[in-house]
Amino acid sequence: MVVLNKIYTKTGDGGETALGNGSRVAKHSKRVTAYGTVDETNATVGLARLHASGDMVSQLAMIQNDLFDLGADLCRPDMEKDADAEYPPLRMTDTQVTRLEHEIDAMNDILSPLRSFILPGGSALAAHLHLCRTVSRRAERLSVELATVETVNVAAVKYLNRLSDWFFNASRIANNDGKDDVLWVPGANR
């Protein structure tokens, strides 16, 4: 259980922060940037939830919880030392990825195939879900970049890759099952 008695600690005033294993790194490090963007994704999901209803509310709540798991995973380097840790680190699993895939497939069964790219927008929920999609894509890019220099859980990267696809399909569901999608018209304003 997490206990936060005091929100500010002053330990980051010099531009460093502690990772989950206690080591200190620059706040602009690739790892902190990656899990910070996962946190940013979570905040955008919170905004989307304000506009959601039905099953999407609970699905978005599960995603928010997963994103905290993902942040915990990314803030804990040294996966090879997991077995020796006093408290086993929280790691993303393929089960979480598979759940997203099943939800994506269920949404896809409802949607008609696209014949054009769509513009972010339509309903308020769809617009927020498109924002979730783009921020999660950035979190994925940053996590992939981190993986070029440090060890990153493969399931964490897979989750982020599926998540942006989930948001895309969910945005279409939010637009009257795709009927109210805003279609891109190439060269329309020339």
Per the CATH scheme, the topology name is: Hypothetical Protein Ta1238, Chain: A
The CATH homologous superfamily is called Cobalamin adenosyltransferase-like
The radius of gyration over CA amounts to 18 Å
Structural class: mainly alpha
- Average pLDDT works out at 91
The CATH C-level name is: Mainly Alpha
Strand order of the largest sheet: 1-2
Total strands: 4
Your description of this structure?
This protein has 190 residues and is mainly alpha-helical. The chain has a single domain, classed as Hypothetical Protein Ta1238, Chain: A. It has 5 helices and 4 strands; from the N terminus they run E-E-H-H-H-E-H-H-E. Strands 1-2 form a two-stranded antiparallel sheet. Strands 3-4 form a two-stranded antiparallel sheet. Strand 1 and strand 2 (24-26) form a beta hairpin. Helix 3 (94-110) runs parallel beside helix 5 and helix 4 packs antiparallel against helix 5. It is elongated and about 55 Å long.
